[in-house]
Every structure is written in C-alpha cells, then in structure tokens.
Design brief:
Blueprint (H helix, E strand, L loop, with lengths): L1 H4 L11 E3 L2 E3 L8 H15 L5
Antiparallel strand pairs: 1-2
C-alpha cells in the first residue's frame, strides 16, 4: 500500500500511471480519441454491452 498510504513525496502526487512504485508515461493511445472510439465500438460488437 505504498502509494495509498505513503508519506514519500512521490506518493503524495495526484494522478499518473504507476508501476512498481515508479511513475511511467501511459501509452500514447490514451490521448487518441479516435482509438478510444474504435476500441469501444469493437468491445460493444463483441459483448453486446453499450458504454456511454
């Protein structure tokens, strides 16, 4: 529970992508609205679940 309860300066930051107690840049697709729309469309077609 390092990030949730730590007093370390890095643990006190808000947001970000963390892996093994280190902050990383997320994949570029997190900023690609077209990719996100295509992903949601593909998931809807596979599962029949509509996300709004």
């Amino acid at each position: 529970m390092w990030l949730a309860s730590g007093a370390d300066a890095q643990a006190l930051t808000s947001g970000g992508y963390w892996y093994h107690r280190q902050r990383h840049q997320p994949h570029a697709s997190v900023h690609d609205v077209g990719f996100q729309d295509r992903l949601l469309r593909a998931l809807r077609e596979e599962t029949g679940t509509v996300l709004s």
